Amino acid sequence: MYYGFDIGGTKIAFAVYDGALNLCHEERMSTPGDDYPGLQRLIHSRVMESDARFGTRGAVGIGFPGILNRQDRSIVAANLPAIHGRHLGADLATLLGRPVSVDNDANCFLWSEVHQGAAAGAESALGMTIGTGIGGAVYLAGKLIQGRNWLAGEIGHYPLPATILMMYPELPRPRCGCGRPVCFETYASGTGLERLYLHFHGERASGHQIVARVEAGEASALATLDCWLEILAAGLATAISVIDPEVVVLGGGLSGLPVLYEELPRRLPGHLLPGVALPAVRQARFGGAGGVRGAALLNL
Ligand SMILES: [Zn+2]
Fold it and tell me: Please, what's the b/e burial string for 223-241 (b: 16 or more CB within 10 A of its CB; e: otherwise)?
C-alpha cells in the first residue's frame, strides 16, 4: 500500500492507494499551524491506523509547497511554519520506522500524471500548475528532475519574455513575492489574470467573474484573455525550448478552461523556433487529487 500526504497551508490531504494504484481511503485534515510535533503526531496516527486497517506497512510519501535544502534535506517552505527548516523526511522515518519520501507538490502533481495520467507512456513531460501561483515540474527519462537546488521546473520565477513587453508595452510591471520584477507567475497565474483584467478594464474582478464576462462577450474581458493566453504561450515556449518535452500537462484551478487546449497549440509556434513539433498540451487527469496521489506514489 502507498500512503500519501499533501501538506498545504490550511489543509492536509491524506490518501491510500493499493498496488494497482486504486484509491482505498482519503481524508482531509486541518494543518496544525506552526505545531511541528502536532503535525508529526497527526501523520503518525494516520499511518498506524492505516497499517492496522490494511494489514500492512504502507510506504509513506509527503508533498508540500516549497523546496528541499540540497545540503541537509531540510524543508524550505516559508508559508508553512510547521515544517519550515525541519528535517521532515528523516524525523518521520525515525518516528514511523520506515523510509519516507518527500518532494514538492508540483513534482508530486507531475509524478501522478506520469502514472496512468495525462503523461502516461511519455518519455518526457513538463507539468505546469496554474493557480494562485505557477508551479512547474520536469520529468525526463523515467525520473523527476529536481536539480542541484531543487529549482528544476520552477518556471513561475523566470521573467516574462521580452517579446510580450514588446507586444504589450503598457502592461504593469509588478514585483513578485520572490522579490524580483516581472516574474512570469505575476501575469500567468490566477492572480495574474486578475491583474491583467484590472489593467485592461480599470476595475477588479475575480477569475470566475472574468471567465463569465468573457462568455458574455465583454470587450475588456476578451482583451484580458487574449493577452493572458499569449503570456502563457510565451512562458511555456521558454520552458519547452529548454526541456523539449513530449507532453505538457496543465493542472491547478485554471487548467479546466477549454480555451487553453485550443489556443496554446495555436499560439506556441509564434514563440518557438520554426518547424518545431509541438508537445501535446493536455489537462491533468487527476485534478485536485494529483498532489496527494503523486506523494503516495513517490515510493513506486
Ligand atoms: Zn518571482
Answer: bbbebbbbbbbbbbbbbbe
